[in-house]
């Protein structure tokens, strides 16, 4: 193993704007800004938000608005979407929104695109209406968006102002193998949601790399993997803090979603054997422990899969513990 395998790997943050028990979305946005500012000072590369809807514990539904808030409160870190669920929106509206963001914060905005609804089927119907099956149009809508950003679109009857002619990097997001082929075909960077969908991670990045076609945007395949991260001074402290994220995923599995709970002892009192196995399967790509512990496992992960960038998501209830985890994680790469 190359013991310096992390030295040149960029590291980033995915923020779901998680709402804590006993708090409100307004509190979440303040803590997100604090973490983003700290991340910038620690050398993190990107700070992304994910679009979700109808989830009381996730306050990132107005994703573009949050991106503007964080970009306005920072100076150099790239800020973007991980992602915008494109079938929920008309490509023109996305082009205008991100064109506005890129005009306000030049060379700092990323546009990650996903094809899933980011919610349940009933809510997806409420968002999409007659376009409920628009996920099937995802490849075409990506092309429409690229055209709207292109200077070649200036002769069209439909143009994005602002947006046209701006250099806004587009990423394709995936949680299965579907989007891997699209990212490869279009020569775009690929970000995989291995933090909750580990099953197809290895297969998807293999498809992406093996079928990648160089483009004007990217000459070689570029994979960013999102993983769950909880780092503390000791393995025991990290395991204790991780009880919050484990209970959160238990809520996903059982359909009993809650606001993020404080850390607690004896997680085994909250699940049965099958639920435990299901949670641990979803959290397969998680790095929980001391800095020394996760460094070894993260080096092995990066080397095994040829990951170009690592994005961390950390569901830690205590803000000071979360800031400390964020700091320790950055030190792993140095």
TrEMBL record:
A GO CC term assigned to this protein in UniProt: cytosol
Superkingdom field: Bacteria
Transmembrane segments: none
Short name of any one Pfam family annotated for the protein: Bac_luciferase
One GO MF term: oxidoreductase activity, acting on paired donors, with incorporation or reduction of molecular oxygen
Keywords: Oxidoreductase
Signal peptide start and end residues: none
Domain Luciferase-like as annotated: residue spans: 13-300
Family: To bacterial alkanal monooxygenase alpha and beta chains.
Protein name: Luciferase-like monooxygenase
Annotated source species: Pedobacter petrophilus
């Amino acid at each position: 193993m190359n013991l310096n395998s992390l030295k040149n790997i960029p590291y980033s943050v995915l923020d779901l704007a998680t709402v804590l028990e006993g708090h409100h979305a307004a509190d979440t946005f303040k803590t997100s800004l604090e973490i983003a500012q700290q991340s910038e000072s620690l050398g993190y590369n990107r700070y992304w938000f994910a679009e979700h809807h109808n989830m009381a514990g996730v306050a990132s539904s107005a994703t573009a608005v949050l991106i503007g808030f964080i970009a306005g409160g920072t100076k150099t870190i790239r800020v973007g979407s991980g992602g915008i669920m494109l079938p929920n929106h008309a490509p023109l509206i996305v082009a205008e929104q991100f064109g506005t963001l890129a005009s306000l914060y030049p060379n700092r905005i990323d546009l990650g695109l996903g094809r899933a609804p980011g919610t349940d089927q009933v809510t997806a119907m409420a968002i999409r209406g007659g376009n409920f099956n628009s996920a099937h149009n995802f490849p075409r809508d990506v092309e429409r968006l690229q055209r709207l950003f292109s200077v070649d679109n200036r002769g069209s009857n439909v143009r994005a102002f602002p947006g046209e002619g701006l250099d806004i990097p587009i990423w394709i997001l995936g949680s299965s193998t579907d989007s891997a082929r699209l990212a490869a075909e279009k020569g775009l960077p690929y970000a995989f949601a291995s933090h909750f969908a580990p099953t197809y991670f290895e297969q998807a990045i293999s498809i992406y790399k093996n079928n990648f076609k160089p483009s004007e945007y990217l000459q070689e395949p570029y994979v960013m993997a999102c993983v769950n991260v909880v780092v503390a001074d000791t393995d025991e402290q990290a395991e204790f803090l991780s009880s919050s994220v484990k209970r959160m995923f238990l809520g996903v599995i059982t359909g009993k979603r809650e606001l993020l709970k404080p850390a607690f002892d004896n997680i085994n009192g909250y699940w049965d054997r099958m639920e435990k196995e299901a949670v641990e399967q979803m959290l397969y790509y998680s790095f929980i422990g001391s800095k020394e512990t996760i460094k070894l496992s993260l080096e092995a992960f990066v080397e095994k899969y040829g990951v170009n960038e690592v994005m961390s998501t950390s569901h830690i209830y205590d803000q000071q513990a979360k800031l400390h985890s964020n700091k320790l994680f950055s030190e792993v790469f140095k």
